[in-house]
Amino acid sequence: MHEMKWIPEDIETYLNVKEYVDTVVVPLYGISMDKEMKQSAEAAEFITLLTTRIERQFTGRLILFPPFTYLKKDPIEKALADLFEWHNVLKADFKHIFYLTSDSDWRLKEDMLQGTLIWLPSIPLKSMNDSQKFELIDNQSQQLFSILTDKWIESE
Question: How far, rounded to the nearest angstrom, does the alpha carbon of residue 156 sit from its chain's CA centroid?
């Protein structure tokens, strides 16, 4: 089985094996248009690489949703309210909902989130060569694999 992303072919695959896919991963991207624009793009790149790696590792068990994006200039409560709407839709089909972000503001609202928040500090990748990037993403991914499998075991 190949990766499951939010594209028509993979959604068709998902619909055929839906009873086995109990987990969704939703990246959270804070978008800035001011002096933090570059930092928000770096964080999005970092989280994208991690979520792609997670999806490859757990194909058949989880699906990677498109990123939930919000404006950093708005209060985090606005994004939280919008995310509740996503959660209400997702909880009908998925037992486990993981939100992955590098935005530390979510850590302050973690107790209000439904689902599991995984926060990782963003690491700028532009100064690294490809092998360094791969090694870093691989190391970070191994930690994420443990978090996911621990949550799955905990709920059985």
Answer: 22
